[in-house]
Amino acid sequence: MNFLYKILLIFLLNTTPLLADEASDWLKKKIDTILDAYKDTSISKVDRFNLIEDSINNNFAGTGISKFVAGKSWSSASKEVKKEYVKLFKKHLALNIASLMQGYSDQEYELVNAKYDEKNKVSMIDMKIHNDTGNLLVTWRVKKSKDRYFVIDLIVADISLVVTKRSEFNSMLKKVDQKLSELNDILRSQNESSYSIIIN
Amino acid sequence: MINIKSLLIIFFIVFANFSALSDDSDKVITTSSDFETTYNEDEIFDPIEPINRVIFGFNNIADKIILEPAAKGYRKLPSPIQSGINNFLSNLRAPLVIVNQLLQGQGKNAAETTGRFVVNTTAGVLGLVDVADKIGLEEKEEDYGQTLAIWGVGDGFYVVLPIFGPSNLRDSAGLFLTYATNPFNAYAVSEDEGWIVPIRTTINALDRRSKIIDEVNALRNNSVDYYAAVRSSYYQNRKAAILNLDDSELTPLPLISVEFE
């Protein structure tokens, strides 16, 4: 039994960094796709956003994040309202990330550290963004599901995008008696405003 | 016919693959442990929210009209000048950082910061050049708010201070202590050169704001409730600072705030 335990421990110690490195390699390709879209001046702003939105929809766990962000309002909403909310939230997420990444497109970055959280089965990958006057640390939380990776959170300066969104939506949902349908209207209007900023 | 068949196969493969990717992303299950948060953390104690929102609105307008344009102008200065100003201001903060590190029982960190202060003040030409960083003495930040938290003082309620931005009762007390005990400010006042204090505070605010222009704009332009987003961001950042998750200067707070330093 003791021998088996040691073997298991050695296996875990050996595979854990590998999982983090594998996630790190995967993430680098996805970040480059987004940043390359910003560097390519031949495409229009609308096409560039569409490209980034596709990449985010495919590589972020948008539905899971949207449910977490909605908090207790999720369970009481109808199927149609939930479907509409997830669609609007994914757009909102894409607009948030595209807006943030836009600021980093002309800066050099490197993935400096990758850790695997065995307890939560999540890889945390640190990205250091360099500029002339200092550095900024961005941490990506990446989760493996059905043999591929998905981003579940983006942490800038110790501030989680998902936790901030949850707090923000929670505040808004309190104002509308936890009605997800009313939040959808607010979210739709915010998305239109954010979209017009990003394409102009 | 073969061509049509091939095209249909390619069409099927491409779209099935695209659809499979989207479907997979919909099936990822997330829980609160994935984000290391709990429902309780969503409930920030904010009993004076209506007043805070008014002050926040005022600060936001002041930022848009004055601080952000000035910070954009500041960012156009040559990089060595910006770095020099940043290093100089950081060096002026060092004595209070040392005091707070000692008050928190961080003897090793206090010794390192003292070493940084001595090296940068001398070899670094009054702190304009961060020589200490090049010899492995990393900058670490500690303030009275963090010290009070380590001593067990609770957050108190959330408060938005005019001009100074997001805070809470404990951190506001910390801000007052910073102002009251700052040796350089005290020296300037004693020499009848008190005008230096607001100038230093303003340059410090500009320097910090210039580093987070993109982050603040991303948050401001894409929030359904910007006030709540800033409030949450403030608490997350302070929590990390108190726990010393990252006490280097690598991660500036992406919030509009002015500090007495």
Outline of this structure?
The complex is a heterodimer of chains A (about 200) and B (about 260). With about 200 residues, chain A is an alpha+beta fold.
Commentary on this structure:
The complex is a heterodimer of chains A (200) and B (261). Chain A has a single domain, classed as Tgt2/MlaC (Nuclear Transport Factor 2, Chain: A). Chain A is 62% helix and 22% strand. With 200 residues, chain A is an alpha+beta fold. The termini of chain A are far apart. Chain A contains seven helices and five strands. Chain A has a five-stranded antiparallel beta sheet. Chain A is globular, with a radius of gyration of 19 Å. The relative contact order of chain A is 0.15. The mean pLDDT of chain A is 86. The longest helix of chain A is centred in the first third of the chain and has 38 residues, at 2-39. Chain B is mainly alpha-helical and 261 residues long. Chain B has one domain. Chain B is built from eleven helices and two strands. Chain B has helices at 2-26, 49-75, 79-103, 107-122, 131-134, 144-150, 169-181, 183-190, 196-210, 213-221, 226-242; strands at residues 158-161, 165-168. The relative contact order of chain B is 0.12. Mean pLDDT of chain B is 85; it is low at 7-20 and 247-254. The chains are: A alpha+beta (200), B mainly alpha (261). At the A-B interface, helix 2, helix 3, helix 5, strand 3 and strand 4 of A face helix 1, helix 3, helix 10 and helix 11 of B.
Secondary structure blueprint with pairings:
The complex is a heterodimer of chains A (200) and B (261).
Chain A: H1 2-39, H2 45-59, H3 62-70, H4 73-76, H5 79-102, E1 108-117, E2 122-131, E3 134-145, E4 148-156, E5 159-160, H6 161-175, H7 180-199
Antiparallel strand pairs in A: 1-2, 2-3, 3-4, 4-5
Helix pairs in contact in A: 1-2, 2-5, 3-5, 3-6, 5-7
Chain B: H1 2-26, H2 49-75, H3 79-103, H4 107-122, H5 131-134, H6 144-150, E1 158-161, E2 165-168, H7 169-181, H8 183-190, H9 196-210, H10 213-221, H11 226-242
Antiparallel strand pairs in B: 1-2
Helix pairs in contact in B: 2-9, 3-4, 3-9, 6-7
